[in-house]
Design goal:
Blueprint lengths: L1 H8 L2 E7 L10 E4 L5 E3 L5 E5 L4 E5 L6 E4 L8 E2 L4 H4 L2 E4 L2 E4 L7 E5 L23 E3 L10 E3 L13 E4 L2 E3 L10 E7 L5 H4 L7 E6 L8 E11 L10 H12 L12 H5 L3 E13 L3 E13 L6 E14 L5 E14 L6 E2 L5 E2 L32
Parallel strand pairs: 1-7, 13-16
Antiparallel strand pairs: 1-4, 2-3, 2-5, 5-6, 8-9, 10-15, 11-12, 13-14, 15-16, 17-18, 18-19, 19-20, 20-21, 22-23
Length: 387
């Protein structure tokens, strides 16, 4: 009885994995479903896995995963089939469109399905975390702020490092006014081959954006809406009135400071931000003409007043097939935006002293050092600047 169990536990399954053309496939993952037992095919496509019963799962990039039951067999050969859905996907490139299996350049594609459920305000946020090798940085959290996109890293010290944006064939350097809900796909050309199309402007990479078009079927109405709020995650502990007074008297001498009511400047400055976005689109057409019309409204208020960003967008895409060899397309995009800026780290006072919500004192009643009994409005200004 013991020897039979030992033989059953040491039993293995072997086999060979090939592609549709009969060639061996190295690097195919072979896993016993529901367990952590796995193996990988060698350079000849052969595999060995410890298993007695269950289901083997074969996975490989570009091929459809297959599940095969062992059913008491010790040798199982598998023929993998290509994943037609992935390979036949159309990708926008500089010269037009190609199927993914025919592309030889470095291209990353991001579709709207990758960010449609995220509260994306700027179209560039759609690339964040979705495009390999593309660095998306938001220097400031204030509404309507610039977002830095780097495809090939920092290639210049004095010139900009932003990529070239091409929206429906029209080059631009700023896409903050583009409604993310109007985007169909974004393709990032990362290698140097894009320079043969766009020249020196492609030195930092190219982001190709295609907007939605109408289709020759029944009219479709889409309405997208979301709302949210934002608050500061954690406040920083600062000195209260008593502690600050003791510090100033230590610096300026006893009796030089009088106390006033304590003001929590972080509580006064940081509030609750709101974000709301609405978009309504209508598309349709027939075999000869297609149309896509959309209107959107974005309102974003920051946690520091009066920082805010309001944007109204209107887009009209028309396509007309006049005959077998002539097709005319029209793209009209209207943008009306209003931006209220707030300086980062607050303002600059006399003597170049930078004051912010974190270093503004709870009171500032300091007597002048000349014994006149008058308050000094700026006791920390350098003597050579104090008349």
């Amino acid at each position: 009885m013991v020897s039979t169990m030992a033989w059953s536990q040491s039993r293995t399954v072997t086999g060979k994995v090939t592609g549709p053309d009969g060639e061996s496939l190295p690097g195919v993952n072979v896993v016993l479903k529901g367990t952590t037992v796995g193996s990988i095919t060698d350079s000849e496509g052969n595999y060995v896995i410890s298993a007695t019963e269950g289901v083997l799962v074969f996975t490989f990039i570009g091929y459809t995963a297959q599940e095969i039951a062992i059913e008491g067999r010790t040798s199982i050969d598998v023929v993998m089939s290509e994943d037609v859905t992935t390979l036949e996907q159309v990708v926008v490139i500089g010269y037009g469109t190609q199927k993914r299996k025919d592309i030889t350049t470095a291209v990353v594609t991001v579709s709207q399905d990758d960010f449609i459920e995220r509260p994306v305000i700027s179209a560039t946020e759609g690339l964040q975390g979705k495009a390999a090798g593309v660095q998306v940085i938001q220097p400031s959290g204030k509404p309507g702020g610039d977002i830095s996109v780097k495809v090939r890293g920092s290639t210049s010290v004095q010139a900009g490092n932003e990529p070239l944006y091409v929206i429906d064939g029209v080059p631009t350097t700023d896409i903050r006014g583009l409604n993310a809900n109007d985007i169909e796909t974004m393709s990032v050309l990362k290698d140097a081959s894009s320079a043969s199309i766009y020249g020196a402007r492609a030195a930092n990479g190219v982001v190709l954006i295609t907007t939605k078009r109408g289709r020759s079927d029944a009219p479709v109405i889409h309405f997208n809406a979301y709302a949210g709020f934002s608050k500061i995650g954690k406040k920083i502990d600062v000195l209260n009135t008593e502690q600050y007074g003791e510090l100033m008297e230590t610096i300026l001498g006893p009796g030089s400071v009088t106390s006033t009511n304590y003001t929590d400047w972080q509580e006064e400055v940081f509030g609750t931000g709101t974000n709301q976005n609405y978009q309504l689109s209508y598309s349709g057409g027939n075999e000869k003409s297609q149309y896509y019309v959309s209107g959107g409204y974005l309102n974003n208020k920051g946690i520091v007043r009066p920082a805010s960003y309001d944007r109204y967008t209107l887009r009209l895409n028309l396509d007309n097939q006049l005959n077998d060899w002539l097709k005319i397309g029209t793209n009209i995009n209207f943008i009306n935006s209003k931006y209220h800026n707030t300086q980062d780290n607050a303002s600059s006072g006399r003597g170049g002293v930078i004051m912010s919500a974190l270093n503004t004192p709870p009171f500032l009643n300091v007597y002048k050092a000349d014994g006149s009994g008058q308050f000094d409005p700026n006791p920390f200004q350098p003597s050579w600047e104090n008349p």
